[in-house]
Design goal:
Layout lengths: L3 H18 L4 H15 L1 H6 L1 H4 L6 H19 L12 H26 L3 H32 L2
């Protein structure tokens, strides 16, 4: 019969191995920030592309496609693809309100500035919001990692 301590050591080793895989590399965070910034600037680039010196191009569709790929990869890198409901991780429950605030707040601010015909303010806010949203995604990833390591 196996020793219970050996079984617990194996469980701990497997948790640490899975926790080591739950990470977002720097390039992923940068790509997330760029894609989210592009999505936020979609209405602005569609309406004011000539004023900003951009050629007419469907930037919003391209950045939305990139964002969808990045989000799918985020689910895989965060281990969220392993559970049916991502709320299974207790750390995610604490991250819902801050994540929603960052995402919804960035949309309201940038698109509001676009509606008010303030393209340069919208551009600056979109870049900041892209960085804040990428940081929030990283914090969500870290919360999942802590839950995995703790066995929750």
């Amino acid at each position: 019969m196996d020793d219970p301590e050996d079984g617990l050591a194996e469980v701990r080793r497997q948790r640490e191995a899975m926790g080591a895989r739950v990470r977002l590399p720097v390039w992923h965070r940068v790509l997330f920030a760029v894609a989210w910034t592009g999505v936020l600037l979609g209405p602005l680039s569609a309406r004011d592309h000539a004023r900003l010196g951009l050629p007419a191009f469907p930037y919003w569709f391209l950045t939305t496609a990139v964002l969808l790929v990045v989000l799918a990869d985020f689910r895989r890198r965060s281990g969220l693809h392993l559970v049916v409901r991502s709320r299974a991780y207790p750390g995610l429950r604490r991250m819902v309100v801050p994540t929603a605030a960052v995402v919804v707040g960035s949309v309201v601010v940038v698109w509001g500035l676009t509606v008010l015909h303030l393209p340069y303010a919208a551009l600056g806010c979109a870049v900041s919001a892209g960085g804040l949203t990428a940081r929030q995604a990283w914090k969500v990833n870290q919360a999942v990692r802590r839950d995995v390591l703790a066995g929750r």
